[in-house]
Amino acid sequence: MSLLFLVRHGQASFQNDDYDQLSARGVEQSRQLGLHWAELNLIFDHVYVGPRRRHWQSLDAVAAVYRERGLNWPEPVELPELDEHCGQDVLSRSLPDLMQRDPAIREMKEKLRKDSDTAQRDYLRLFQKVTRMWVRRELNLPDLEAWHEFRGRLNRGIAKMTEAAGSKKKVAAFSSGGPVAAALGFALNLDDEKTLELSWVVRNAAYTEFLFSRGRFSVVTFNAVPHLTHPHLLTFI
């Protein structure tokens, strides 16, 4: 049996012009993950990373700790299948039309202010409502990757990582909350909406462990954050 450690990136730059950039807190979260794994002397045989900058920055923070400690860190392989779903594009593309025909969404959008103390909560509520409609196929966005296509892509990524690993290996992969939830959905045979809902609770820099062998892919731990011991490091966005 082998183990896959699937990591969500550290906190990105919410409310900034460029979300795809770790915040200072996100770098610290990722470094704490590296320290935790290094203390456990957890040595990986393979490392994969999604294509986003925040994925690479999270990996780099962990890898830096390993190098400081003189521990082996494999050359990472970028895997496009580990990219996040297009939920943010779904929101931005569908919002103008939805505001015209859905009073509840219009009210939620008008309430959302970047300088508000509740900005993260307000944004998340709006994002959840719209992406749930997307998953239910209630939105017509034919030029964007559909939810079922995203899940299929992630499953192909899992197959690539697990088939290449061999037996009794440890694999680390750095990605986003959506792929973490989709991998768990694959392991537990969850439906689309349950899988989407899981993506909303994945913490930054949390890891989820999967046990795998030929024909088997099982969850061991979900959303683990033993390395984030300070409350200010526990974030979702």
Tell me what you see in this structure:
The model has no long low-confidence stretch (mean pLDDT 94). The chain has 2 domains: 2-84 and 145-233, Phosphoglycerate mutase-like (Rossmann fold, 3-Layer(aba) Sandwich), CATH 3.40.50; 87-135, no CATH class. It has helices at residues 24-39, 53-68, 87-101, 103-111, 119-135, 147-165, 177-188, 192-199; strands at residues 2-8, 46-49, 77-78, 170-175, 207-213, 216-224. It has 237 residues and is an alpha/beta fold. A 6-stranded mixed sheet has the order 3-2-4-1-5-6.
How many β strands by DSSP? 6
The CATH topology of the largest domain comes to Rossmann fold
Q: Nearest-angstrom radius of gyration?
A: 18 Å
- Low-pLDDT segments: none
Overall tally of structural domains: 2
Q: Major sheet, described briefly? A: 6 strands, mixed
Summary keywords:
single chain, alpha/beta, 2 domains, 6 strands
Detail the topology: elements first, then pairings.
Layout: E1 2-8, H1 24-39, E2 46-49, H2 53-68, E3 77-78, H3 87-101, H4 103-111, H5 119-135, H6 147-165, E4 170-175, H7 177-188, H8 192-199, E5 207-213, E6 216-224
Parallel strand pairs: 1-4, 2-3, 2-4
Antiparallel strand pairs: 1-5, 5-6
Helix pairs in contact: 1-2, 3-4, 3-5, 4-5, 5-8, 6-7, 7-8
